[in-house]
Amino acid sequence: MHTPGSTTERTRRRSFLEGALVTFLLGLPGVVAVGASLLDELRAVPQFTDTPTPSLFLVGIAQPLVLLALACLVGTALAPRVKLHSHVLYRLVGRTQPPVLFAEELPAAVGVGVALAVTVLALDGALAAVAPDLPSLGVAGGVHSTVFSVIATVPTRLLYGGITEELLVRYGFMTLVAWLVWKPVGGDRPSSGVVWTAVVVSALAFGVGHLPVLSTSPSFTPALGALAVSLNALVGVGLGWLYWRGSLESAMVGHVTFHVVVVLVSFGTVL
Prior knowledge:
Layout (H helix, E strand, L loop, with lengths): L3 H34 L1 H5 L9 H26 L8 H7 L8 H29 L16 H39 L6 H17 L2 H4 L7 H24 L2 H23 L1
Helix pairs in contact: 1-3, 1-4, 1-6, 3-6, 5-9, 5-10, 6-7, 6-10, 7-9, 9-10
C-alpha cells in the first residue's frame, strides 16, 4: 500500500528528472555545434591524425557533455530553492514559476544584449586605438576574417554561446553559488547581496572560462588574457542579472542578442 508521502516523493523525483532531461536536451545542440567546430583542430593533433571522424567528434563533445549534464542536474535541483526561474521548466514540469510572462521579459533581455555588445565592441575598439601596441581581442573579427569564417562561427555562437553556456554558467554554476552562499545564512529566500555575489562570481568564472581557447592563439599575452576576462565578466554580470530578475530564458535571449549584434558588426568589417 502506497502512502501519500511516498507518492509525493515519487512525483517530485520524476519532476526533477524530467526537468534535468529537458534542460539537457535544450543544451545538446550547442554541444553538437562545438564538436563539429573542433574537428579540424583535433585532426591537427598528432595522436588524432588517423582517428575516424565520428571518434574525433566524440572526443570534442565529451567534456562539454559531462559538464552540461552536471549543470542541468544542479540547476534543476537548486534553482527552485534559491528562487531562480525558468519558463521551460515551469511549462513542462511545473518547476520554478517565473514572476512575469516571457513576453514581458523580452524587451529587457534584448536591450541588455544589445547594450552589452555595443559596450564590449566599443571598449575593445577604444583600447586598440589608444594602445595600438597591445593585441586586440578582435571581438568583431580580425584582419584575416572573411564572410565565410564569420558564418562558420554562427552555430557555435548562437547554440553553444547563447543557450548551452547559459545552462552551464548561469543555471548550473550561478545557481550553485547562490545556494552555497545562502545556505549558511538561512532565511526564506536569498537576499540581494547573496544573489549579487553569485552573479559576480559566476561572471568572473565566465570570463576565466574563455582563457583556455584564447591561450592557444600565437598572439596571446597576459594583457590580452586580462582584457578577455574583464570584458567577458562584464557580459556575465549583465546575463546573470537577467537570470536573477527574469528567467533562464531571459538570459539566453540576452546572450543570443549579444552574439547577433557581434556577428552583424563582423559582417560589416569584412564586406
